[in-house]
Give the backbone structure.
Amino acid sequence: MASYIDPGLQDKFESLSTELKNCILERNVKLYTLQDLIGVLEEIVNEAES
């Protein structure tokens, strides 16, 4: 499964660092809304804190 970034979210996604974008893409997620993006970012933060 490949990751999908909704075209309406592309600008926000592109504003992230390359490392963070790669981390998100490696998760094979589908991001349709800003809430989807925030959810994945929260997962990454929680994993980093563990």
Q: What stands out?
A: The mean pLDDT is 96. The two ends are 27 Å apart (CA to CA).
